[in-house]
Amino acid sequence: MASETGGSPFARGTVLLMVAIGFAAFLALLYAIGAGGALRKGNNGQAHGASASIVGYSALGRLLENTGTPVRYGRSPVAVQQQDLLIITPEISADPTELAALVNQRAFIGPTIIILPKWQVSPLDGLKSGWVQLDSPWVAMQSPQILSQLVTARTRLEGVSPQFSQFPLVQAETPEQKTAMLKQALKARVTITGDKLKTVLADPASGAARVAVIDDGGWYPSLDADASAEPGSGVQQGRYPVVIVADADLMNNMGLANRKTAAQALQIVDAAWSGGGEGVVFDLTQNGLGASENLLSVAFRPPFVGAVASLVLAAIAFAWMAFFRFGPPLSDERPFGFGKTALVRGSAALVRRLGRDHLVANAYADLLRDRAARALGLPPSLPPDQVDARLALVPADGEGRSYEQLLNDMRSARDRPAIAAAARALYGWKKDRMG
Questions:
Q1: Could you report the per-residue pLDDT of 87-103, keeping only the tens digit for each?
Q2: Has this prediction a pTM greater than 0.70?
Q3: Contact between 37 and 289 (Cβ < 8 Å)
Q4: What are the CA-CA distances from residue 361 to residues 298, 318, 340, 423 (Å)?
């Protein structure tokens, strides 16, 4: 039925919906390509700021937000190069050189907190997505290798038996043995010692540092109890501190379930600020959740997002004009006509293209003469000169031009305007006088 009436076989609303869905999918694809790693799920059970597992630090982020501190999550190198306090939670497999480069770049940009890994965890069937079970705190004994390019340090597990410290990865044979090992592991406290480390928070039992600051020549009175009231001559002005939290339970989700530990975590953050920015940034690049910068990712952020929005609006406006046009569509003119009209127009175009317009004048004059002779009933065998003599007796046209004058004008015309004018005059004379 649509083909008989010449209409579209698709409804306008259906086509518009298809175009809208395709356009939205294209924009979503561009955003996904530009965002890259930023779209990866953060709540993967590991120990980082976006994780809600028992070893994650999402509770610290919410605690800071609830106390009026802006919190962001850095997935690119640009995001972590801010004056705000940067909290780095490297994994045990992190590259020490890469970590040292990141920390050294921030020496005069803003303060940094490094929370060393403590727990080995594993997912368990039946747990919610992002939940894990604790296996062993033995990772804390290997964590100093992450700091090898920054400082020489050594960690120790406090509050556990020497047998457990030496053999933390022994698999429990019974549920009771596993429960006993877990209770023992939860008592473990991590301390750190090193030549260039100064204690910020000491372990009550051993006196060793659970939180320390690197002695890098800066002046940090909020972190170093032995610091002078005023910076001395040998102090590097403008340098920001690097705080190392050896025991992750002081700041992870499990530790912040205790009100006293949560208050202590806020005190550590406040002390580490040391004149930094107004917010806190949790680094995710050291946890495999980073995203590289590219043109597409920049296009969806200020100030370029305004230009992208303008282009989208322009595309919508063009689509609206295409679907809701003014007036009925105009059909294209047929390139080739039918019958005699097509023959005449084609011949005229060919003569015009060849530049032989002047050859038409004599031929048209002979044609009109023959038609006029037939109209008068003159014999076909009559010579042309006698035909002209007979036609000369016919009265002139309305402007007083005789047949002889019109015939001479026709034969003497050479350019297109003159030929057209002479042809119209000769044809008008013939039509008026003979029909």
A1: 999 999 999 999 999 99
A2: no
A3: yes
A4: 71, 52, 20, 8
